Amino acid sequence: MQATWKDGMLEMVSYNFKIASDIPQKSSITRVPEISKKQLEDIVQNVVRKTNTSPDEFEELDLSGFSTIDEQLEFLKQQDRVDTMYIM
Reduced to 3 states, what is the DSSP secondary structure of residue 48? Predict the structure, then answer.
């Protein structure tokens, strides 16, 4: 899930991501052009509840400065925030 701040509102994009034959692929893409911070926090809390995880297991990272998935992945690798076992 990504959220980008613009004009006092957030834009949220959620998708599943996988790499097949060295090609990054997104599926199940959902875009919400305007969402309040409160609504986004409610969504995150719902995910925490439904996945039976602790809020401490989640980390907020701003990936909005990257224009491609490859750039996002490289940043996440540098931050040691991606399991490279699943990335070819």
Answer: helix
Q: Which amino acid is at 40?
A: L
As a whole number of angstroms, the distance between CA 42 and CA 37 comes to 9
Q: Would you say the C-alpha torsion 64, 44, 11, 13 has a positive or negative sign?
A: positive
Each of the 88 residues of the chain gets a pLDDT tens digit; together they read: 556 555 666 777 777 777 778 777 777 877 777 888 788 888 888 888 888 888 787 777 777 788 877 888 888 888 887 766 655 5
Number of domains in the chain: 1
**DSSP code for 82:** S
- The two structure tokens encoding residue 71: 């750039």
Say if pTM beats, i.e. exceeds, 0.70: no
Query: What is the domain range of residue 30?
Result: 2-53+60-86
